[in-house]
Amino acid sequence: MAVDGVTLRYILYDILRDFRQRHAQADISEYQLLYWILIHADRLRKLHIQKIDSGEYLVIYPTVSVVTDSNDNKYIVLPARIYDYDLDKGVVFITYDQRSGDDNPVFTQITFGRTAPSKAKRLQYREEEAPSPDNPYFYRVGDNIYFLGVENVSMPTVEVGILQALNPTSLTLDIDQPFDFPQDLVPILKRQVLDLGLWVLNVPEDLRNDGANTQSPTQQQKFIKTSEQTKTDSQGNQIFISEQQT
Amino acid sequence: MVNENSFISLNEILADALVALQDEDTRKLTPGFYRAQVRNGVDELGFDTVFQECPPHDVPMPANHIITAPANAYRIKNIQIYTGSPDDIGYVQPLYWKKGARTEGFEKGYTANNHPGNYSDIYYTSPNWGDTDIAYFFSYVRGNIYISDSCDSYDYVRIIYDGIPSGVLGDVKLIPPEVRKAIVLWVIEKCASFLKIKYPEYRTVQLDAAAQLDEYGYQGAWHEARMRLKYLGKKVMRDVAEYNTRPRA
B91 and B154: one domain? Predict the structure, then answer.
């Protein structure tokens, strides 16, 4: 979680101002723009985490309650939505929540290995890989994380480290808090949101349903590409200028 | 000859291999799978050369003269029978392997082409190396050692053997440091070969490790490890040389 840095409000009104410079009558609400920002930010953030080996976006939940279902399978419900990475790498680790005598975190000793329902059978073939309390496994089914090897172990809670995704529909989002997003990617985020917004605002005329006869023999589709350039105004502020290329 | 306190453990091999394979979170393969590969590598090296000296296995002479080979034994080096007990050994007699001998145990007789009861065969005749009634021999079938009847007057059987190293390889430090490089490379090569189908970049890792290992040649860490293990200590070498060059009567 970022302790300082740019807030969502900065980004939101920065982009909104740019839209209104280009389309003064644009009917884009703050909520819609916030949604656009968050879905693009979520995607960029996912790619960033995948690329950069850093603990910046690791969130640790020290005590997540373990539930037992009607078939005696132990599982937890993920405390938040995670990024859907290959090999379930959105779950960074799961470990017992009890500290050992030397006070090192338990994740330095036993962590749950990752498996999948279709692969778990093979684990039984070899003693070294068989699920056990010393060699436990997890597998993901939607928002639930099931465990193997701990069926006979009393385990009320586990410690979980996850790569938590942004929630574009959060009702409790405080846009005046530092935005949990790599600040070096803010220009790319802004560019992507502007691209989306300007594309929406510049829908070609022939895609609008105005009731006109469009049964011409050769109807050509116009694609409009937008790009921005910056220049400095008389007060020294940097402003964006959109250009249209047909 | 390295002091066993200097030996390294399975986990120390993994610590190197996992970094080379860029799978420190053991997400691509399971931790148990990696551990199994270390065991396999240690076993392979153990089959190629004397890897682990096992202490002698002493067994009281069983009533049926059938002994199950020690767990993890894969190469019997010697069998002796003796009177007394392991801490007070008396008379010692080597046991010899008899080809084709098959028996169901003590005083049940045995079959073999070369048999004292065989007088008429045109190829085999009675052995002429002594009184076959007091022949001290054994046969070996499917992990069982069958000892001849005439050994009955002895109290113990001592089996000297090479063990499969991984049989006792756990968290205990049992890997000599001079073979560390070979085992690490062996594990990297094998794991990379398993990973390369899904992650083609591991093909390069595998080729690099295989080139450095050269398991079937003489230019890599595998051969180097075998040579290191076979190398005798200076003292042993000098004594062997002195023994072999002693003046003969």
Answer: yes
